[in-house]
Design brief:
The chain is about 40% helix and about 15% strand. It is of the alpha/beta class.
Amino acid sequence: MNPANERANTQEDILQLAEAAGIATIWSDAYGLPRQVSPPALAAILAALGLPCDSAAQCRDSKARLAAEQTAGNLPPMLTAQAGQPIRLPQQAGLHGRYYRIEFESGASSKGRLAADSGLPLALQPIDVCGYHRLLVGRQSVLLAVAPARCFGIADALTGNTDATREADVTAHLWGLAVQLYGLRRQGDGGLGDFTTLAKLACDAAQHGAAALAISPIHAMFSADPSRYSPYSPSSRLFLNALHIDPASALGDHALTDGNAATTELQRLEHMPLIDWPAAAGARLSLLRQAYTRLLESGVSHEFETFCRQGGSALQDHARYEALQEWLPRQANCGAPESTGDWRHWPLEYRDPRSPAVTAFAQRYPEQIGFHLFLQWHAARGLISAQRAARAAGMPIGLITDLAIGADRGGSQAWSRQGEIIDALAVGAPPDFLNTVGQNWGLGAYSPLALHASGFHAYIEMLRACFAHAGGVRIDHVLGLERLWLVPEGASAAEGAYLRYPMVDMLRLIALESWRYRAIVIGENLGTVPAGFDERLAQANLLGICVLWFQRDQLQFLAPKAWSAAAIATTTTHDLPTVAGWWSENDIDWRAGLGLLEAGRSDADERAARAQERDALWQALTKSTCASGAMPPPSATAAPVDAALAFVGSTPAPLVLIPMEDMLGLPEQPNLPGNIGSHPNWRRRLPLNVEQLLHEPAVLARLARLKQARAAAASASASATAPAVLTSDKDRA
């Protein structure tokens, strides 16, 4: 064959294989223009998915293998279904006329027979009982995940509804706060927010009437490398950040005042305006090692042993990873210390968690591994205590945790779940108005092919880890339920492509787990949203997020009544400017100083546009009667924070979440995307101790306005849905 024809055929084969594998070969950019993914980028993504296509022969082999998997006669390890709906089986399974048995979680069972006519759909009778059941048909055994039609909702939390098939008959107009957990302060905290401080804030907020307290991600990080502290780039989403443990919960309060070097360092760090993560981590872990030594000396408790047993192999894997990451840099011939922070650079014998070398390491160093088991035990105890305190203080929801979109590809979860997480692809975002070259977040993503093949095991365990000790979960970049922008190793972010995910299955599993844990679900649906996506979220009772800065029709800000009732409402997010920062152009100051302005726009362009936006926001605030009089000057101290909170509080959203930065009127935002080290991302501490946060006069005034706005929104909703009162025969006519 002519080499040119061979290349042409290969490119066509690559396009066909990519489409069959769920990769979008054409996508629409921020301007709505179609863009074609290059064949080399497609080939790299396909290779990472285990579908090599460097030649026509490889393409044919990969297409045949993919087709065989999609048309195999055997049933997949798991099928998801909606309660009360027929359960469709793959038509090619060849099971027509077969008898089947369903074994329910409860221990009960039922029998049936599939249609004998091969021309009819192959389906089981509807199952009304939600849960994980077992289908036995022929010689096959399949897990059936039967989910409710919708997620556990805010109305369910308010009414105590336990029936997933029944809608709770109440319209919620609640409010809550959002906080960066690491930034909380209290006396004796050692320079870093912890679960004890979180519990204090939750109780205080509940006494003011808050229904929920949303927190930054608390996923497990890297104990041996605390310089990696971005909460959205965790080591594992299966476990918790041990640095949020209060050492006093393990050692007792007296241990923090005994004058040793570690406590002296903690006292120094406590008064710093920014978090010194390495120093704070070193001091805190030193105290926790003392607590672990005392535990070993006094004898391991039954509670700790039970925790380790229930954690199973996943917990053991994480503890082994943490111990190895600390131990390997001290060994000869293991490379530079910075390289051993990534398991993919470890000596070959340690890259497999099931290898003899890892087993031998665990047998040789049980106390080192035990320390990290101890840390997870205390972290879980701290989170559980905070959630219990929130609920006991009166919050119907309590803590809302944050599920990051991915985990570091060199971290614990990727090491222990290599079969499900794609190694050579990173989650990111395509070029858009704010990031003209696109984004590469360096995070690992699940392989859709592996999820199907494994019965979604890794996905379910992650959901359970996030739902376990909270009243709600916020899913970061929830758009990933339908598609993710994945970037090949070594390529620019613009050379990525969208990979399709099994959204129906994943939504059903979220709904099922949300009811099992009785936790609401919020999805961060900001960005380029596919057509119909928000409607699918609403149908599943998965709440989206409406942010003040984006609630516009061109330049005009939408009136509160025009906001969605199927989403929470907020003034801003951790990646966006605060109200005071936006009004005073503090965010423009930062972006201009760091060279992060949108391509083709000058500092003057940005400020001129902001002046128009300020005017538009003030008009919206005054039109809604949340503000009056002359527009304030563009300074942080003059920013209409109170009016903005009342404006957002007036929306029909079932839950309004106000970041503590806006409650305090602060101009600085927690994170400035796109910069590396120049802005103190994830290091800012709140200026007041937790006991003072909600008792400052300005904060009390804002709380009062927010509660008044929420009450007015509830009243307006009740009036709009109330039946008309008939006062005469004429009215009846």
